[in-house]
Write a structure and sequence with these properties.
The chain has a single domain, classed as Glutamine Phosphoribosylpyrophosphate, subunit 1, domain 1 (4-Layer Sandwich). The chain contains 4 helices and 15 strands. The strands form 3 sheets. It has a 7-stranded antiparallel sheet, covered by helices on one side. It is globular.
């Protein structure tokens, strides 16, 4: 079981084989933003539609957000999603410090959300990307993309070489503190667990799911096709009747089209 600690930011990500809406999981996470949890310092969500990118941010509590209510009632289908609710610890509460952050690399929009603290990250030099806000999270994202751009000036045809490189740089950042992250380049969903992430994969035969934070249930057999594969990653499990898998400390994983494509534990 994952240790309960409500006083941290929470992450939610999805990787799917076909464009899928995340309204069900999103509804559960949003209740934790000022209702069933104390994460009232902003929230954001990023969707990919092919190479297209759509994002919503709000520096207020998600449980009281009209924007959040709009998204819950509007089925946006995507094959890669990142969502974040914030409990501020570094950087003031404002729109520019609200995750997910985004930058362009190789003509693709990369997005990133982080839970944790990184001591001394702002002493690390930046070359291509610079933060707009004051959070250590955005600074770390800029540094990470700097490193990728320097190593790969153009896109590589060897994705596992890229994933391995990202893994090494993520582990460097994790040495500075707690670095639970989700990151996407529209094609894959990167994740790293310092101390708290869980995931589940939904595939046929699909069944019912019940949210922990709201009196909402759904029968996925009525909402999906037999070949669909959907993986959901969250800081804490969002449903009460599904089998969530706790990621191990130091685990770095990449999901592609809903499937686990790369999975490494910290060798140390």
């Amino acid at each position: 079981m994952l240790e309960e600690n409500p006083n941290v930011c929470e992450l939610l990500g999805m990787s799917a084989s076909v464009p899928t809406d995340i309204c069900f999981s999103f509804a559960g996470l949003m209740r934790r933003g000022g209702d069933t949890g104390p994460h009232s310092d902003g929230w954001g969500i990023a969707f990919y539609e092919g190479k297209g990118y759509r994002a919503f941010h709000d520096p207020g509590a998600s449980a009281d957000s009209e924007i959040a209510r709009f998204i819950q009632g509007y089925s946006i289908k995507s094959d890669s999603v990142i969502c974040h609710i914030r409990k501020a610890n570094r950087g003031r509460v404002c729109l520019e410090n609200t995750h997910p952050f985004s930058r362009e690399l190789w003509g693709q929009t990369w997005s990133f959300a982080h839970n944790g603290q990184l001591r001394g990250i702002k002493q690390w030099p930046l070359q291509y990307y610079f933060p707009v806000g004051s959070s250590d999270s955005e600074y770390a994202f800029c540094w990470l993309l700097d490193q990728i751009r320097r190593e790969f000036p153009t896109p590589t045809r060897n994705p596992k070489r890229l994933w391995s490189f990202v893994e090494t740089r993520v582990r460097e950042l994790a040495k500075l503190g707690v670095f639970n992250i989700l990151m996407s380049d529209s094609r894959v969903l990167y994740s790293h667990c310092s101390n708290r992430l869980a995931w589940l994969t939904r595939r046929a035969p699909f069944g019912n799911a019940q949210l922990l934070d709201a009196d909402v249930a759904v029968d996925f057999a009525q909402e999906t096709n037999p070949d669909d594969v959907v993986t959901v990653i969250a800081t804490r499990p969002l449903t009460s009747n599904e089998q969530w898998h706790a990621m191990k400390k130091g685990q770095f994983a990449v999901f592609e089209k809903g499937l686990l494509a790369y999975d490494k534990l910290n060798p140390t």
